[in-house]
């Protein structure tokens, strides 16, 4: 395990701290460690301290009062129970000691004082009953309390959140802070904060009562003070061990291993529905599988266990010492018994037992994990069921290889005959009895109002869905007779909801065409080709602005965590933290240019016969829109590919189209060339005139 520590000293006033980096498996751990000497660190300024105590007390007082006011009687019982819980360990130790002392007396004198034993046992039983009663009551009031406290604070936070103006929302820190507390029960909320504060109260009560007991009761036994001290050493060493793993300083941990990140990126592409359309159309599944395998092989000896468990395992010697210290109280008492068996005390042995309760706690947690054993078995069973079953495919694949059956031509013939379609699990047809014919090499524009079915038609051409009735012919064969994969290899599609993979710019574009093979031995040629596509998509400026150019990852899929102290980190710590998970902010037009670059990269291939674009210029300026159309048009006019263009903005475009399809409410209401459709004076003429009028009135103003 390679370990690196770089120190960048910084001075903030009188305090000295530095950033320390440690590589543990796939994680980089960044900690801001304080180097002040002990004197400076523990320098106590009573005035500052008093000020801080007053400030904290007033906040806590207000918080406590607000929480208390939601239901005073419930809150009183809840707090009483928490305090009681803090005292139970000591009370239990006290009673155990008393009972055992009586037994010890009985063993040494041969007679038992039944009255004292009876009283003790009855008292213990009563206390246990009270404890169970309170526990029961506490459980039933806790639910009501938590919802009340959470809602009280959520309401006021929501009110302030809704009043934020846009620029405040864009101040991500402010917005995130609100959102952190508005996500519901499983995220940080007022009730959790309250219970944590009460938890501290309970912890202090417990620690003070146990210390009092240890020194008070054990002090009267021979060697008792020594024993108490050993128990303390044990407790402190455990705390020190814990402190070595979770250092009490600002900490930020992220996955810096490129292979680990790549595995997660592939997983994200595979599991997020928003990537699925492009994934299917561009046929990248094999490539993703290979990349996953490659990354997994590289990661085989690198641990991805969380950094704390890696630290825990790191030092064998300190781990042995820590465990031996845990046994010190018992060893001490065994030694005492050996030296003077007469001073042997049953109650002290019982207390030794109590002191080792921490160990019992660990076993208890192991036996009572957060998810039950039966649940784990069910999960494993589910894994096997998924692994053994075929993927659930709703479409029957065809048998023809499109590349073999298609005529020798550069374009694609497409014909719809009385096609109707409804989306899966919907009954209403969104495409109704549509028929048209597109000849290879033609430029076709599909127009219509919102929701008229343009994008749906577009998805049917690529067989993303199967139609309900009618037939779609591709080069004279029904679309369903082709192996879908082979047909898609001949198409380049730009969807309205284009996606961006959590990979580099270079790879985002490269994935547009994995079917022609990605030959990494000739990477320079690939890079040149990708660069050319970036220029065709108009995205060269976007790429040039990135520090790593084509290799920049604009939306990194970073896995990171921070501890509660991270808010207290210095400016350098915070800057580094912000830098790690940062996504590049691009305008909608810039994202679209990148998606278009991917389309051009694919469309360049000789294999591609149909280029289909759905609203490719929705976010582009008029200059870029014109350039884009000309570039796309050349794919048809020069290279002979069929071009389908779905758009709301027409005029320039439709005048140059060989065929215009006009959609309304799922039906094809008109089709023909621009001049013919204008003469019809119907839907197309209406839409065209509306746009022309708007354009004219803009000019007049
Ligand atoms: N995935 C889907 N599941 C169910 N219904 C859908 C889905 N996608 C679209 N629809 C519905 O199909 C109809 C046609 O939508 P479509 O997106 O094809 O219209 P459009 O003409 O492209 O609209 P726009 O101009 O707004 O892009 C609409 O009523 C829409 O609500």
From TrEMBL:
GO terms for molecular function: ABC-type oligopeptide transporter activity; ATP binding; ATP hydrolysis activity. Keywords: ATP-binding, Nucleotide-binding. Pfam families: ABC_tran. The keyword Transferase does not apply. SUPFAM superfamilies: P-loop containing nucleoside triphosphate hydrolases (SSF52540). Residues 414-690 form the ABC transporter domain. InterPro entries: AAA+_ATPase, ABC_transporter-like_ATP-bd, ABC_transporter-like_CS, P-loop_NTPase, Type_1_exporter. This is ABC transporter domain-containing protein.
């Amino acid at each position: 395990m390679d370990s690196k520590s770089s120190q960048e000293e910084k001075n903030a006033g009188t305090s000295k701290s530095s950033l320390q980096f440690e590589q543990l498996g796939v994680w980089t751990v960044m900690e801001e460690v304080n180097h002040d000497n002990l004197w400076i660190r523990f320098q106590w300024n009573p005035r500052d301290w008093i000020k801080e105590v007053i400030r904290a007390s007033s906040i806590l007082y207000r918080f406590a009062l607000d929480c208390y006011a939601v239901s005073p009687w419930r809150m009183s019982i809840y707090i009483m129970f928490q305090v009681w819980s803090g005292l139970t360990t000591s009370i239990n130790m006290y009673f155990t000691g008393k009972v055992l002392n009586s037994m010890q007396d009985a063993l040494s004198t041969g007679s038992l004082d039944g009255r004292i034993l009876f009283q003790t046992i009855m008292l213990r039983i009563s206390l246990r009953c009270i404890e169970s009663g309170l526990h029961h009551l506490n459980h039933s009031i806790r639910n009501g309390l938590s919802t009340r406290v959470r809602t009280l604070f959520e309401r006021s936070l929501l009110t302030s959140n809704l009043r934020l103006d846009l620029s405040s929302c864009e101040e991500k820190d402010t917005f995130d802070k609100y959102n952190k507390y508005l996500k519901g029960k499983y995220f940080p909320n007022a009730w959790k904060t309250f219970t944590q504060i009460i938890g501290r109260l309970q912890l202090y009560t417990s620690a003070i009562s146990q210390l009092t007991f240890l020194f008070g009761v054990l002090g009267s036994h021979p060697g008792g003070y020594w024993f108490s001290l050993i128990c303390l050493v044990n407790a402190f060493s455990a705390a020190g061990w814990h402190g070595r793993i979770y250092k009490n300083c600002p900490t930020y941990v992220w996955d810096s291993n490129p292979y680990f990140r790549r595995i997660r990126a592939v997983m994200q592409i595979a599991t997020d529905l928003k990537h699925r359309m492009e994934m299917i159309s561009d046929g990248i599944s094999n490539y993703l599988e290979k990349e996953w395998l490659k990354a997994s092989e590289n990661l085989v000896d690198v641990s991805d266990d969380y950094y704390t468990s890696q630290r825990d395992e790191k030092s064998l010697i300190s781990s042995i010492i820590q465990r031996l210290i845990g046994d010190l109280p018992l060893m001490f008492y065994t030694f005492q018994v050996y030296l003077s068996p007469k001073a042997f005390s049953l109650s002290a042995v019982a207390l030794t037992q109590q002191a080792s309760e921490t160990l019992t706690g660990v076993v208890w947690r192991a036996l009572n994990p957060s998810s039950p054993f039966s649940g784990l078995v069910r999960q494993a069973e589910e894994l096997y069921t998924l692994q053994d079953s075929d993927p659930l495919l709703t479409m029957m694949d065809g048998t023809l290889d499109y590349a073999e059956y298609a005529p020798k031509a550069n374009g694609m013939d497409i014909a719809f005959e009385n096609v109707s379609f409804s989306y899966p699990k919907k009954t209403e047809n969104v495409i109704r009895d549509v028929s048209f014919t597109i000849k290879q090499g033609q430029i076709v524009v599909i127009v219509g109002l919102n929701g008229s079915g343009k994008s749906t038609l577009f998805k049917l051409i690529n067989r993303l869905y199967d139609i309900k009735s009618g037939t779609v012919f591709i080069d004279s064969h029904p679309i369903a007779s082709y192996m879908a994969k082979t047909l898609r290899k001949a198409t380049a599609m730009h969807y309205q909801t284009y996606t961006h993979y959590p990979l580099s710019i270079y790879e985002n574009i490269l994935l547009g065409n994995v079917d022609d093979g990605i030959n990494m031995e000739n990477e320079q040629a690939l890079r040149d080709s990708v660069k050319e596509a970036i220029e065709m998509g108009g995205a060269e400026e976007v790429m040039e602005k990135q520090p790593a150019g084509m290799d920049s990852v604009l939306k990194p899929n970073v896995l990171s965590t921070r501890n509660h102290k991270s808010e207290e980190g210095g400016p350098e710590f915070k800057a580094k933290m912000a830098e790690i998970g940062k996504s590049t902010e691009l305008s909608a037009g810039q994202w679209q240019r990148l998606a278009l670059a991917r389309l051009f990269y694919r469309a360049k291939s000789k294999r591609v016969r149909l280029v289909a674009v759905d609203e490719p210029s929705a976010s582009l300026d008029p200059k870029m829109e014109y350039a884009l159309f000309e570039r796309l048009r050349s794919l048809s006019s020069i290279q002979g590919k069929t071009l389908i263009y779905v758009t709301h903005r027409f005029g320039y475009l439709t005048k140059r189209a060989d065929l215009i399809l006009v959609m309304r409410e799922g039906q094809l209401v008109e089709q023909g060339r621009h001049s013919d459709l204008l003469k019809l004076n119907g839907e197309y003429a209406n839409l065209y005139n509306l746009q022309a009028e708007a354009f004219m009135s803009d000019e007049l103003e």
